[in-house]
Predict the 3D structure of the following.
Amino acid sequence: MISFLKRKREKEKTLPTPYFEFQQTLSNVDIFLSDAKTIADRIAILDAVLKMIKMDVQTDYLTDIIYKDEARNLSLFTHLNVKGGNGNMIYPHAYCDGKGMYSTHTKEKICGIADFRVALIFELSKMKYQLKEEASLKPQESTRQDILKQ
Amino acid sequence: MKEILLSLETYTKYIYDDIIDEGINVEAKQSLIIFFRELKKTRPDTEYRQGYVNHLGYIPYLLRIRDAFLENNYCLVAHEIVTVFHYEQCLQPRIYNNLLHILEEHLNKGG
């Protein structure tokens, strides 16, 4: 019995810590983003990281460990499909840490997230969305300045 | 696999050169193609293991490999692959599949 508990504890110990994974990955990606010269380069880096994390979710054994039951499985797919259902609208109003999603305005918890990789997909997609917004605003600003000059 | 990794390690001495000799770069690319074929034949691990530091610790290494490919610096790619094999458990499906994907994408591009 004791050896069984020991084994169980050892197994739990080797599982990743959501907050640490989340923060560590974001700071790692930030280093690469700050080195990139243009917005297009930053978007390409975010795309590459998103692809890697999606591949991780699809193929790694951790997915089997986290999504043991179907209810959690469903939550994964609803989170992953956030973007499909005009999910861009949610970005200014929510943020994630490794374990949950919170309202930007009230800081209240909206829902728990079983998988830190889903939280990362959300945050990185949000960063990509903000960069795209920035890129789409820039030419407009220049045209406004041109009009003012004229 | 160890032998191929050792052969890739020989290109590490060129990574600090300002201009890499074109012949050596092409040679490094050929070694990477051989490595890719060998990696494809290798079976991934059968049970979960976390990385030495964290689960997603492989991302910076893969981003550096991607950067080196974009610079067409195959000696640096070889060096980064040896590094990721040293610091991470590359036969875990998450790293194995991502590495295969990056190699396939960039090695096919140049023909």
Q: What stands out?
A: Chain A has a mean pLDDT of 79. The two ends of chain A are 83 Å apart (CA to CA). The helical segments of chain A are 2-13, 18-35, 39-59, 61-66, 70-80, 116-149. The longest strand of chain A covers residues 100-103.
